[in-house]
Amino acid sequence: MNADVPEAPIGGGTESTPGTAALLQVRDLEVTFTTDAGPTVAVSGVSFDIHRGQTVAVVGESGSGKSTIAAAVLGLLPGNGRVTAGTVTLREQRLDTMSARRLQPLRGTVLGLVPQDPMTNLNPTATIGRQLIETLEDTGTASGAQAREAATELLTEAGIGQAQERLRAYPHQFSGGMRQRTLIAIGLSASPELLVADEPTSALDVTVQKVVLDRMEALTAARGTAVMLITHDLGLAAERASHVLVMYRGRLVESGPALELLTHPRHEYTKRLLAAAPSLASRRIQIAKQAGAEGAVEGADLLSATDGRDQHVTDAGAAPLIRVQNLRKVFPGAQRGLFGREPDVVAVDDVSFDMHRGSTVAIVGESGSGKSTVARMLLQLLEPTSGQVLLEGEPVQARSQREEIAFRRRVQPVFQDPYSSLDPLFTVFRTIEEPLRAHPFGSPKERAARVYELLDQVALPQSMARRYPAELSGGQRQRVAIARALALQPEIVVCDEAVSALDVIVQSQILHLLADLQERLGLTYLFISHDLAVVRQIADHTCVMEQGRIVEQGPTDVVFDSPAEAYTQRLLAAIPGRDLELAVPGS
Amino acid sequence: MLRLIARRLALLIPTLFGLSILLFLWVRALPGGPARALLGERATDAAIAEINELYGFNRPLHEQYARYLGQLLQGNFGTSLTTRRPVLEEFSNRFPATLELTIWAILIAIVLGIGLGYLAARKHGSVLDSLAVVVSLLGVTVPVFFLAFILKYVFAVRLGWFASTGRQSSDIDATHYTNLYVLDGVLTGELDAAWDAILHLALPAIALASIPLAIIARMTRASVIEVQTSDYVRTAIAKGLRPTRVRNRVLLRNALLPVSTTIGLQVGLLLSGAVLTETVFSFPGIGGFLASAIYSADYPVLQGFIIIIAVVYALVNLAVDISYGLIDPRLRTR
After folding, report:
1. What backbone phi and psi angles, to 5 degrees, belong to A147?
2. Which residues of chain B neighbour A105 with C-beta distances below 8 Å?
3. Is residue B78 one of the residues assigned to a domain?
4. Which of A1, A490, A523, B68 has the fewest CB atoms within 10 Å distance of its CB?
5. ipTM for the complex?
6. Contact call for residues A360 and A527 (beta carbons, < 8 A)
7. Which of B242, B254, B334 shows the shortest C-beta gap to A123?
8. Which H or E run includes A94?
9. What is the pLDDT of residues A18-57, one digit of tens each?
10. What's the domain count of chain B?
């Protein structure tokens, strides 16, 4: 429908193919949300073009307005959001003023969507087949037996085996990667001319991400589909898109061909984003002995590339502070029927490593590799099936409450989600004071002094003390979580995906804070992460886990520069933007 | 699924066994014993001794219980002290009336509750929405018996649109198979009898429906508001589904999952909630009979009814649990 609208040449924006009209033209777009506090402008003055068959990436951190642009293009702004200025034109038709009724026939056939979160974007009460077939039927692509056949084909194309049987499955029976592939199959089922892919792989493991993106790229290339790729990952954008748009606080601060933008960033924000982005070219963060807390917040200044290997590793010959010996954890299989049982799950198998005082050991692996189970066993939150953890040569399996309390003073955790790991009803002061009360520490006055000292250490102003978690940003919350962990002056801090939920610039700041605290307080870290680039910046010793086993471990630079195992090589190869970075001078 | 049903039915046995012990002990713990309760405060000791001998109340407790349980297992729930007829017979005479009243009440509650809740959610923030919130608040806060009196006074006594008491007018001569009068009227083609039964049922059913209706409406409203802003509804729109399909297949089906839980709980409550309503409208169900049994300390009736209601309640809950599995694929055993 509407296929033969005359095309008028309009320039500007990404100007990739001069002479032909852009498929999508966005001009001076402004989106306003009505909130209780009055109208908030989320996006303003944004203009760009997307041409047929072109892939354009929109990059920015959370809250930068990149998903709002996607929603505005799709006509799917939430109830309190409106396009208040500018135009969105697709194939000469104004989308921003189009009614929902007139927009509906364009959906799927002209405008497609691959949404962000594979866990929440499929209808939980309909089979995978139904959700594909209903799309084919309602978009007039196919019906009846044909639709069934087409659905099987689409799933197979998206990389799901035994598609015929899988059509009968429900979303909850699919893994995250399979759900994301299903969403790609649905988004492409009516061959749209423009596919909006909103963070299509941010919920997936890095190796799965690569496979899914490769598949999406192949499918869109075969159909000549234009793609608007929304992502927070600059490396991924550079690798997958011909043009990159950089969003910052609702404005388009820079746009241009991907490689040019990476090599010659013009805007200050793009430069900061590039500097903060963890990459394989980064090196261990080095902190000068006198660096203060204020310095740590500055971020990029402290990131100094050194060529020396493992300067940081202290006396490796000395006895380790913590020795993990042959840890094994078996979870019994779920009950099935009256007597049946699913097979037992070996979550962690024969894991051993040493942690030396003042150094960082990282465990990297994909979801389900068992890395968090190791962390929980080290924290004594989970009992090992066999094996043990030795703290200064003594087994730590606590036999009494007193022993357990003593252990907890020395080993503290920082968890992933800064939104759910703080009590929303506690002020920052109360949150940090809590462990000081639980392990009786001084008078109220001394406790208060300690809380302010800790706030200082994590570079938060003292005025923060009276705030509640809801009033803090993600990075500030994670600083509070770190301050709480440090309250009892522990020797060991276990960081379980402690920076994974943060935007890159904030992530970089927190990593520098951790490195700084380590230097000043002589802390020992166990750093659990799925992100190899982050691990490279913080770890002295790296363990790579796959399916419950450590497949490779050694000094970080050795593991990264000359990986011995095929799995490690595969993980490293899957990092987006890897090849491009090598082309960028000065990184 | 079959295994689930078998297990739930097996669990019913210890539940009923425990209940029978409780009921047995309860009657024996009445002040002055069951005989005193039966004959009243001013009964002579001789009369009480006679009753004790007649009913075996002077035997050891375990012996009495064994006899009681034996009779229960044979389906003998005893004889009513006031009507002198078997409890089971009294029950089966009255239960269809209560069942019919409950069915209509739950139908009204489900249809109006879901409809009201859905409309309120779709027009979230509008006058209709506020109205629905007020109505559902009233439904929960106004006592059932008060609402019943008002309905009876306005629509039966003053306006004369509906019947004020009973199940059927005296001039109707209807044939009954199921003892569900509306259904009987339709089955036998005696439509005037069916209509007459509806006129009798309408007010008590509305009064009885008020609380579950309000709760279902609130639940539906909250659930639809949540689901209509969910990612999968947005995706369903974005992939080009027709609006009717988005509403029926995606929005409603998912929004009604938590509502079905509420409905299940309400069905159980309705059975016991029928007592007040039946009393106000002199509706010849178990509710009114149970109330008079309490006044006259007709303990065999109370014991029997409680056990039977427990069984019905358990079966209703089982049916509700099974229906969850049918509605929500995530609850099916894989």
Report:
1. -65, -40
2. 240
3. no
4. A1
5. 0.75
6. yes
7. B254
8. strand A93-94
9. 456 789 999 999 999 988 888 889 999 999 999 998 999 9
10. 2
